[in-house]
């Protein structure tokens, strides 16, 4: 493996497992909690939290597949596909990036052709894996979508949807040079690869490879939660929310009672201060992004309109301004 960290150009192909390899955590629960909260609000968030003991019990008795299916059903049943894609684009990447295993990334990034395999819904991870981990393809499980565009909460069941069948379709008659996954993983894709890599990697390999490249950073984050909602964190959020609303109301009331000339700041500063207090009280995160910043990140430019492609009178307005 040393030749892949020697600085030579990338070559070869690799298939890597996402959970437990490229990501440290194998538990999808926090990410489904984020998906439930951002798409449906506090009610679905709390429902999934209260289901957590049942999910853990199923995992402990060897029924991890049923646990995942139940998690998916509660988190996404009745949610529009477009809303899930929006959360996967603007919210989940920040939390995925915080969980990236740099040792695994160093090996994964040293190959030219990269494919990621996951047991989670493909729609949740595809944007992050392709944009930030530079993968070429993602092999994940597909959700059933109704003809009206809503998720049913179930996975599609078809022989061709298995990871091995999808990998064979991607690589045709060839085989990937390397398979990267957990030693305890029973995934069939590892046997499909010519070589197999496992964590942990040697410390010297990690130090040398980290100097070559790092994942593309997450610039735009539009989520409302600061910390990843583990079961304990989610429980604190649910318990604090009613009290937080009362505290926010009291603070706003005091702010309205105090004459504005008592406050040595402009109305804009006061409005921004109130928003920060509300966000901090409710446990949300302030991105400090202006509207132009968001447009710039989403549109891939500086957030301005190209006046050369507009009507002449608009160009004249620009000159006057």
From TrEMBL:
Membrane-traversing stretches: 31-55, 234-262
Key words, A-Z: Membrane, Transferase, Transmembrane, Transmembrane helix
Main localization (coarse): membrane
Pfam families: HAD_RAM2_N (PF23270)
InterPro entries: HAD_RAM2/GPAT1-8
Presence of the UniProt keyword Transmembrane in the record: yes
Occurrences of domain Glycerol-3-phosphate acyltransferase RAM2/GPAT1-8 HAD-like (ranges): 13-198
Subcellular location: Membrane
Cellular component, GO annotation: membrane
One annotated GO molecular function: glycerol-3-phosphate 2-O-acyltransferase activity
PANTHER family assigned to the protein according to its UniProt record, in alphabetical order: ANCIENT UBIQUITOUS PROTEIN (PTHR15486), GLYCEROL-3-PHOSPHATE ACYLTRANSFERASE 7 (PTHR15486:SF54)
This protein's name: Glycerol-3-phosphate acyltransferase RAM2/GPAT1-8 HAD-like domain-containing protein
Organism: Musa balbisiana (Banana)
